[in-house]
Amino acid sequence: MMIDPITFWSKVEKTPSCWNWISTLDGKGYGKFKRGGNWWSASRTAWTFGNGSIPSKKHVLHRCDNPACVNPEHLYLGSHQDNMRDRGKRGRSRGRFSKTFANGGERK
Q1: Residues 61, 54: contact at Cβ < 8 Å?
Q2: pTM exceeds 0.85, yes or no
Q3: 74 and which of 6, 24, 64, 108 could share a cystine (Cβ 3.0–4.6 Å)?
Q4: Which fold has domain 5-101?
């Protein structure tokens, strides 16, 4: 069960650049909401409303480095590796990915 667009966008505060999710955030600042007993990603839902379906094994990444942003123009699709590389470049990595991806390098 997905959320309807009117309800979804009512939980967003639009600024001149980012559209911030103002409802529930996870521990890393990403928007989420609960429907039908399941938690849903606000970023993935925003992508779907703005751009269509998300191909299998694709992640929704942020151009703006604002986890709460759900502006479809600030989101793009990437692989898991793209997500890890992006995370490292932005200094949010820890563990085995932090050194490998901080420079955009490949995992060995």
Answers
A1: no
A2: no
A3: 64
A4: Homing Intron 3 (I-Ppo) Encoded Endonuclease; Chain A (3.90.75)
Number of helical (H) and strand (E) elements in the chain, helices listed first:
4, 6
Residue with tokens 């429907």: 35
On whether the CB atoms of residues 67 and 30 are closer than 8 A, the answer is: yes
Residue spans of the domains in the chain: they are 5-101
Q: Which amino acid is at 76?
A: Y
pLDDT in tens, 5-39: 999 999 999 999 999 999 999 999 999 999 989 99
Which of helix, strand or coil describes residue 40?
Answer: strand
